[in-house]
Write a structure and sequence with these properties.
- The protein is of the alpha/beta class.
- The protein is built from eleven helices and 14 strands.
- The strands form three sheets. Strands 1, 2, 3, 4, 5, 6, 11, 12 and 13 form a nine-stranded mixed β-sheet that branches. A three-stranded mixed β-sheet has the order 8-7-14, with no helix packed on it.
Length: 336
C-alpha cells in the first residue's frame, strides 16, 4: 500500500493542536502524523510530547514561513504522498480514502484537495479553497463556492470530482515525488499563493490537479494572518503578480502584468478613501518588490511555457467586470 504522511506546520498554534489534532489522529489511521514547528513560543512542543507521543515532531530554530517550513520538513519525510494540512482544520471520518483512491487511479494526477467548508458556519464554503481553485484570464484566482468575498452555501452542488486549476494549500494532498521534482513551494513567496504557483508549474508538464467532493474538511481560516492584516495585503498583491511573472508565456506576460499593475491602483485608491493607509502602502510596496525583483523571478521560469487559456480551470473572462459590474456572485453563473 502507498505510504502517507499527514504534515501540519505549526507556529504558536497550540490551541489549534489541542482542538483538531485528536481528530486528525483518529480519522487518519495507519498514516504517519507529523508536526513541523516553526520555533513556537507557546508551549506547543511540550504539549505535543506529553499529549501525543506517537506524533513525530520536526523542530526549526526560526520561523521559516509556510513555504520554506514545509520544504524543509518534507525533505525529512519519506512517503509516497504528502498531506499538507493547516493546523486549523477539522477532518472527518475517512476523509483521505476517496482522495488516495483518486490519486492511485491515475498517475497523471499530481495533487488533490477536498471540499473545504467553514468551521464556524458549516453549511458554507470556506474562503481559502471552497470546491477547487480557478483563475480568470488576467490571473485573478477564485473558487467554486467563492467569488472574491461572496461565499456560497453548500447545497451539494459541488459534490463532484473534477479537474481544477489549483488546489488549496490549506489541505493539499500531493505526490511526494512531484513535490521534490518541482522543488516544492517557492520560498520567496513566504506564504500565500504558493500553492497556485506549484500547481501551475505541474500543469505546464501535463499533470492534473483535482478536486474531490467526496472528502470534506472544515477550516477555521485566518489562523496565521487575519484578512485585516496589512502584511497579508502585501503578500497577496505581491505574490499574485509573482505567479504571473513565473508562469505566463512572454506574449501574455507583457500584456497581463502591466494590466494587473494598473488595476491594483484602483485598490490603492479604494484603501485610501477608506482610510486604510497601511494597506495602500502595502500594495505600493508589493509593486516595488516585483519591479526590483523582476529579473530574479524571470530566471525561475520554466522552458516552453504554454498558453494560459489552454489549461483546464481557466475562465476566459474578466472576473472583476463580471463581479462588480454585472453582479455575478456565484460560480455557476459564469459562462466558461
Amino acid at each position: 500500500m502507498a505510504t502517507v504522511s499527514v504534515v501540519i506546520l505549526n507556529f504558536n498554534g497550540k490551541h489549534f493542536l489541542e482542538k483538531f489534532l485528536p481528530g486528525v489522529i483518529q480519522f487518519s489511521p495507519g498514516h504517519e502524523i507529523v508536526v513541523a514547528d516553526n520555533h513556537s513560543s507557546d508551549g506547543s512542543i511540550t504539549y505535543l510530547k506529553t499529549a501525543f507521543p506517537q506524533v513525530r515532531i520536526i523542530q526549526f530554530q526560526e520561523n521559516l514561513g509556510f513555504c520554506q517550513g514545509y520544504n524543509k520538513a518534507l525533505q525529512q519525510i519519506e512517503s509516497d504522498y504528502f498531506v499538507i494540512l493547516n493546523s486549523d482544520i477539522e477532518v472527518t471520518d475517512q476523509w483521505l480514502d476517496p482522495i488516495l483512491g483518486l490519486l492511485e487511479s491515475d498517475p497523471k494526477i499530481a495533487a488533490v484537495q477536498p471540499k473545504l467548508l467553514d468551521y464556524h458556519r458549516r453549511d458554507k464554503f470556506e474562503y481559502a479553497g471552497g470546491a477547487g481553485g480557478f483563475m480568470d484570464k488576467f490571473g485573478y484566482p477564485f473558487c467554486r463556492g467563492r467569488l472574491f468575498n461572496s461565499i456560497e452555501m453548500d447545497y451539494g452542488q459541488y459534490d463532484d470530482t473534477r479537474e481544477v486549476f489549483w488546489a488549496t494549500g490549506a489541505c493539499l494532498i500531493i505526490r511526494a515525488e512531484l513535490f521534490r521534482k518541482y522543488h516544492g513551494f517557492d520560498a520567496d513567496f513566504f506564504a500565500h499563493m504558493e500553492e497556485i504557483d506549484l500547481c501551475w508549474r505541474m500543469k505546464q508538464d501535463g499533470y492534473k490537479v483535482m478536486y474531490c467532493g467526496r472528502s470534506v474538511v472544515y477550516h477555521v481560516g485566518g489562523g496565521t494572518l487575519p484578512s485585516s492584516n496589512p502584511r497579508k495585503t502585501y503578500l497577496n498583491f505581491r505574490n499574485s503578480l509573482l505567479v504571473l511573472i513565473k508562469n505566463l508565456p512572454v506574449s501574455e506576460l507583457l500584456v497581463k502584468v502591466p494590466f494587473r499593475w494598473l488595476i491594483d491602483w484602483v485598490a490603492i485608491s479604494k484603501f485610501l478613501l477608506d482610510g486604510k493607509w497601511r494597506d495602500a502602502w502595502m500594495i505600493l510596496k508589493a509593486h516595488w518588490y516585483t519591479a526590483t525583483h523582476f529579473v530574479h523571478f524571470i530566471r525561475k521560469r520554466s522552458a516552453g511555457l504554454i498558453s494560459f487559456k489552454k489549461h483546464t480551470g481557466v475562465y476566459n473572462g474578466f472576473l472583476l467586470f463580471q463581479y462588480y459590474l454585472m453582479g455575478v456572485r456565484k460560480f455557476t453563473n459564469l459562462r466558461f
